[in-house]
Automatic annotation (TrEMBL):
Its EC number is 2.1.3.2. Carbamoyl phosphate binds at residues 49-50, 99, 127, 130, 247-248. This is Aspartate carbamoyltransferase. Residues 2-139 form the Aspartate/ornithine carbamoyltransferase carbamoyl-P binding domain. One of its GO terms (biological process) is 'de novo' pyrimidine nucleobase biosynthetic process. The gene is pyrB. Heterododecamer (2C3:3R2) of six catalytic PyrB chains organized as two trimers (C3), and six regulatory PyrI chains organized as three dimers (R2). It comes from the Bacteria. One of its GO terms (cellular component) is cytosol. HAMAP family: Asp_carb_tr (MF_00001).
Length: 289
């Protein structure tokens, strides 16, 4: 396993091995890398959680993190992503973590590049490390996947989180449902009202409204009333059901502000879990080189 590009390329065994290793890290296990590795984080879209989480994970497994500022890179001078990554390889890097606006940007790097590539988000395509931390959060909560119902709510068509999780959860035996406005369903079959979903779901997974990917203005208040997780809707959830959100959260749009840190919420737990998952990803990838 030299690269992590898409959940499509991971088997269930691959997923479970990463989840188990993340649990070992959470319980205090030491990393098993045989040397120091050099890693850079190439983020061409804004990020707080993913970028910082990867940087923390890299340091915790013993990597040397080489600073890279996208806003000052030669890509602004017209250099291709391939040439940038090849340059970093020649300098001596072992791996790069990349977030880019283009879907499947990594395809141009698969021939001729010998360092490892970890996809931290490609446009509206995939976000495998987020999916893995979501899976870890669910697994910690329920101890299984088979037979659970997860409802993903929001901007489905533009969400790499929804796409990654749909692939992984279904393969693991989860009943995945979608709720969104009709124009945001994309290629997914989705419901357009909450009817029955709250009573059936073990997990309500809310998605950020991606304002930067929309041309048309919409009413935040109307969205919250129709599709948001309101206080009234939270009361209809199963007793054991949990709330998730990849963040950043638009409070009082996708979710009532009072629910962000309620007893059911695992939103900030997901962020913490992301460090352990990314430690497991890095160790797996770098040991596989």
């Amino acid at each position: 396993m030299k690269n992590l590009l898409s959940m499509e390329y991971l088997t269930n065994d691959d997923v479970m091995a990463i989840l188990e290793r993340a649990r070992e890290f959470e319980n205090g296990a030491e990393p098993k890398l045989n040397r120091s590795y050099y890693v850079a984080n190439l983020f061409f879209e804004p990020s707080t959680r993913t970028k910082t989480s990867f940087e923390m994970a890299e340091r915790k497994v013993g990597c040397t993190v080489i600073p890279f500022e996208a806003g000052f890179s030669s890509i602004l001078k017209g250099e291709t992503l391939y040439d940038t990554v090849k340059t970093l390889e020649m300098i001596g890097l072992d791996a790069v973590v990349i977030r880019a606006k283009e879907e499947e940007y990594y395809n141009e790097l698969l021939e001729g590049i010998n360092l490892s590539i970890i996809n931290a988000g490609d446009g509206t395509g995939q976000h495998p490390s987020q999916s893995l931390l979501d899976l870890y959060t669910i697994y910690k909560e329920f101890g299984r996947f088979e037979g659970l119902t997860v409802t993903i709510v929001g901007d489905i068509a533009h969400s790499r989180v929804a796409k990654s999780n749909a692939i992984a959860l279904r393969r693991l035996g989860v009943n995945v449902k979608f709720l969104c406005p009709p124009e945001w369903a994309g290629d997914f079959e989705a419901q357009h009202s909450w009817n029955g979903l709250l009573e059936e779901s073990d997990v309500i997974m809310l998605l950020r409204i991606q304002h930067e990917r929309h041309d048309v203005h919409f009413s935040k208040e109307n969205y919250h009333q129709q599709y948001g997780l309101t206080i009234e809707r939270e009361k209809q959830m199963k007793d054991h059901a949990i709330i998730m959100h990849p963040a950043p959260v638009n409070r009082d749009v996708e979710i009532a502000s009072e629910l962000v840190e309620c007893k059911r919420s695992r939103i900030f737990h997901q962020i913490r879990n992301g460090v352990f998952i990314r430690m497991a990803i890095l160790e797996t990838i770098l040991k596989g080189r």
